[in-house]
Specification:
The protein is α/β, with parallel strands linked by helices. Helix content is about 30%, strand content about 25%. A five-stranded parallel β-sheet has the order 3-2-1-7-18, covered by helices on one side. Strands 9-16-10-11-12 form a five-stranded parallel β-sheet, covered by helices on one side. Strands 19-20-23-22-21 form a five-stranded antiparallel β-sheet, sandwiched between helices. Bound molecules: flavin-adenine dinucleotide (FAD).
Length: about 475
């Protein structure tokens, strides 16, 4: 039997463990905090559970426009208040239950779980440090899936009460009066959106001219407009350089000398890989300057028999990608059929209100000449279902190859973009043409109708007619 030892129990690790078990490996998974990893315990599951509550508040806020009144005239959302203690208790309970479900599944599949810290001892052994001591495990195949940790600025040290990382937010028992969110990347924007929807006064400190740098420019603009219209304060081109607690307030200092005061501050300034102290260099596993493990498209590191998956590789910080890298590592190492990781087909979503879902090539790649594409952008306010539901913001954008019309990318900005992107994701993966997308039936009226309509508008476009980005 092949001995497979996995360090880290997030999606990169546990999905790999399931595949390795299925392929007949003798699998041991070492996890120091809880199965499911950060994805389940502090990142994806808790944040999306919190956002689910925030979405209900957003819906209630829009109810007035649809003709719903409380006592004949009051706005519906005025009748609701947020019990953050109850919300966070639910969030943490759900995360713990999900972790336990995954643990149960792994054990049922014959995976040995060790609660402890793993590190490499060369390329053929792993040392597990547990409460009971250490164990040296023989390994034919090793997978490193240790994830990342929130980046902390020395001048803005989280105290877990007023200055918080996203992993500490769920300890809050009351809605912050004024939450300063430092960082307008995906994590910062999602929490700013959620807390604002829940009723907190939110100040978003963004070092760029627009929130969500790195996302589709048009999409980020829509989100920024919605944020501003709903009363969120966005401090653009503002770099936070320090945060300190003064009494029962937090003062954030900006690089230009201004200060912002709030009741709480969320630091969302990126992550650092959990790759130190793992014995990587000694085993011949190379990391880049930022500390991420170097891997190829089948998750191999520079050391024979040692693979790596997920956020610790810095390839694409998504749970779905981590899981796929982990599975690919096991398919490859255990001799199953395997194809290389294809990032062109990854569907991703930003869970703001509205959401931004993307797949395939981006507008930035088209603009810089890295991809040659025709594009069309169709605002959602032309869609009958959107009008009925009071959806005023959002759009569908499709990129296709100029000659063949093959769909190579898309963006959807809508309240449930994460669900709507599936059609475009399938089209990109299966190399469908815009005509094939346009000719498949969509329900009338539906938001997906806009995807077919956008595809229809790309039919037979010459280069001159195409909207270019
Ligand atoms: C706030 C937030 C929201 C997010 N939302 C989404 C989302 O909606 N969708 C999405 O796809 N992605 C989302 N992500 C990204 C997602 O969380 C990560 O891509 C995913 O967790 C990566 O999985 P992983 O297995 O690489 O690492 P992790 O989930 O970080 O798991 C790694 C595990 O390894 C353990 N570990 C580390 N070192 C050791 C050691 N030496 N020994 C034993 N165990 C060790 C850690 O304790 C951890 O449990 C979000 C991220 C954040 C921060």
């Amino acid at each position: 039997m092949t001995d497979v030892v996995i360090i880290g129990g997030g999606p990169g690790g546990y999905e790999a463990a399931l595949v390795a078990g299925q392929l007949g490996g003798n699998v041991t998974l070492i996890e120091r905090r809880g199965v499911g990893g950060s994805a389940v315990l502090t990142d994806v599951v808790p944040s999306k559970t919190l956002i689910a509550t925030a979405e209900v508040m957003t819906t209630l806020r829009g109810a007035h426009e649809l003709g719903l009144r409380l006592d004949g005239e009051r706005h519906l959302d005025e009748a609701f208040s947020v019990d953050l203690a109850a919300v966070n208790d639910r969030v943490l309970k759900l995360a713990a239950a999900q972790s336990s479900d995954i643990g149960g599944r792994l054990e049922a599949e014959g995976v040995r779980l060790i609660e402890g810290t793993g590190r490499l001892d060369g390329t053929e052994h792993v040392i597990a440090g547990t409460a009971d001591g250490t164990e040296r495990l023989p390994a034919d195949i090793i997978l490193i899936a240790t994830g990342t940790t929130p980046r902390e600025l020395p001048t803005a040290q989280p105290d877990g009460e007023r200055i918080l990382t996203w992993t500490q937010l769920y300890n809050l028992r009351e809605l912050p009066e004024r939450l300063i969110v430092v960082g307008s990347g995906v994590t910062g924007a999602e929490f700013a959106s959620a807390y604002h929807a829940l009723g907190a006064d939110v100040v978003l400190v963004s070092s760029r001219h627009q929130v969500l740098p790195g996302e589709d420019d048009d999409a980020a603009r829509v989100v920024q407009q919605v944020f501003e219209r709903s009363g969120m304060t966005i401090l653009s081109k503002s770099r936070a350089q320090a945060a300190r607690v003064v009494g029962d307030e937090v003062v954030v200092e900006l690089a230009d000398g201004r200060t912002v005061t709030g009741s709480h501050c969320l630091m969302a300034v990126g992550s650092i890989p959990n790759t130190s102290g793992l014995g990587l260099a000694e085993a011949g596993v190379r990391c880049n300057d930022a500390g991420y493990v170097t891997v190829d498209k089948v998750s191999r590191t520079t050391a024979r028999g040692v693979y790596a998956a997920g956020d610790c590789t810095g390839v694409f910080a998504l749970a779905s990608v981590a899981a796929m890298q982990g599975r690919i590592a096991m398919w490859h190492s255990l001799g199953d059929a395997v194809g290389p990781l294809d990032l062109r087909t990854v569907a991703a979503n930003v869970f703001t209100a509205p959401e931004i879902a993307t797949v395939g090539v981006s507008q930035a790649e088209v603009a810089s000449g890295l991809a040659n594409a025709h594009a069309v952008m169709l605002p959602l306010n032309t869609n009958a279902r959107a009008k009925m539901r009071g959806i005023n913001d959002g759009f569908v954008k499709i990129f296709c190859l100029p000659t063949t019309g093959i769909v190579i990318g898309g963006v959807v900005v809508a309240p449930i973009a994460s669900e709507l992107i599936e059609g475009l994701s399938l089209a990109v993966r299966e190399k469908l043409t815009v005509d094939q997308v346009a000719q498949s039936f969509t329900v009338y009226p539906s938001l997906t109708g806009s995807i077919a309509e956008a595809a229809r508008r790309l039919h037979g476009r010459s280069a001159a007619q195409a909207v270019s980005y």
